[in-house]
Amino acid sequence: MGGRNFSKKRQLILDTIKETDSHPSARWVYEKLKADFPDLSLGTVYRNIALFKEEGLVISVTNIDGEERIDGNTHEHAHFVCKECGCVYDIFSSNDDNAAQCPLAGFETDRTVLTYYGRCSDCINRE
Amino acid sequence: MGGRNFSKKRQLILDTIKETDSHPSARWVYEKLKADFPDLSLGTVYRNIALFKEEGLVISVTNIDGEERIDGNTHEHAHFVCKECGCVYDIFSSNDDNAAQCPLAGFETDRTVLTYYGRCSDCINRE
DNA sequence: CCTAAAACAGTAATCATTACTAATTTATTT
DNA sequence: AAATAAATTAGTAATGATTACTGTTTTAGG
Fold first, then answer.
1. Which of A107, B12, B49, B83 is most buried (CB neighbours < 10 A)?
2. pLDDT tens, position by position, for chain A (127 residues)?
3. How many Å apart are CA A61 and CA A22, to the nearest integer?
4. What global pTM score does this model have?
5. What is the 3-class SS of B16-70, one letter each residue?
6. Which of B78, B89, B108 is opposite residue A119, by nearest beta carbon?
7. Host H or E run for residue A11
8. In CATH terms, is domain A78-125 a member of 3.30.1490?
9. Nearest to A109 among B68, B108, B116 (CB)
């Protein structure tokens, strides 16, 4: 678990998540890998994503149409979610590192999530 | 629809959401009203919440344990979500009104969501 | 190679949410 | 107010994401 020796499937799932910037759902990861590894199980993808979240290897970004979307880039950064096409964009800023803490006294902030919702330029230009 | 004459049930549901600061789930609203209105249907709560969201009377705040949590206060403000007890706290700030727009060129920002995740003071003190 | 623990495939179960339909409520017209 | 049409609802069934379960396979160590 805690070590660096992941099983073959577990490593494949993590690599797939780390290599894309599509902020995928569990099903997306499953279908991408299914092509090359037909005996992969959807439950395995879910189970491993849950595990990665616990270990901080992956974060939950948003929920689009009932599906949780995750990000393998755990460096603190903002996101833009397009309400029209459902795409999720990364927004990196020079002060991502010193993300604001919650101003409520006596509260302990683990993670600060900044998300913009709206229409992306592609959808605006397509109209 | 667009007018001010809501059906009895619809108005009840909206009032319940507006009157609480618990950032309720659909089921919470349903169970709260069910006590006094035993013939209320859960589907009606869901349908009306969807409608309120479309009309901008209510916003979606976060998703906790698979349940969407909403807020009847549509004034822009931040939230703190306690990972331990699942409570959602409002965080009002002097510059809520001029919430940042997404810095990506050509993108249209409808809503900026700032959420802190961590442990609330109650949970910290309880340990 | 042997053995025990961990991980997996495949399927069934769970649970939030949505869809559907017949009945009820609300609005409109007389 | 009665008659009619439109909107809303209750109750239930369907959907779809996620989780749980069980028997099998993979992995790690000796």
1. B49
2. 434 589 999 999 999 999 999 999 999 999 999 999 999 999 999 999 999 999 999 999 999 999 999 999 999 999 999 999 999 999 998 887 777 889 999 999 999 999 999 999 999 998 7
3. 11
4. 0.91
5. HHHHCCCCCCHHHHHHHHHCCCCCCCHHHHHHHHHHHHHHCCCEEEEEECCEEEE
6. B108
7. helix A8-19
8. yes
9. B116
